[in-house]
Amino acid sequence: MRNKNGQAAIEIIFTIGIIIFTFLLLAAFTFERKIEVQNFAKGAEVKKDCFKLTNLIVGAFINGEGTTITTKLSENMTAEQNSLYIDENFCGLSANVLKQNFNLAKGKVSIENKNNSIIIQNV
Amino acid sequence: MSKAQIGILDLIIAAVLFMAVAIPSVYFWNLTRDRLITGMDYSEMQVKAFQLSDLLIKSEGKPTKWENTINETLALGLAESDRAISPQKLSALNATSYNTTRKLLNVGIYSFKIRLTNPGNEPIMEYGKNFTGQSSVVIERYVTYEGEKIIFEFTLWK
Question: Which domain holds residue B146?
Answer without folding.
Answer: 45-157
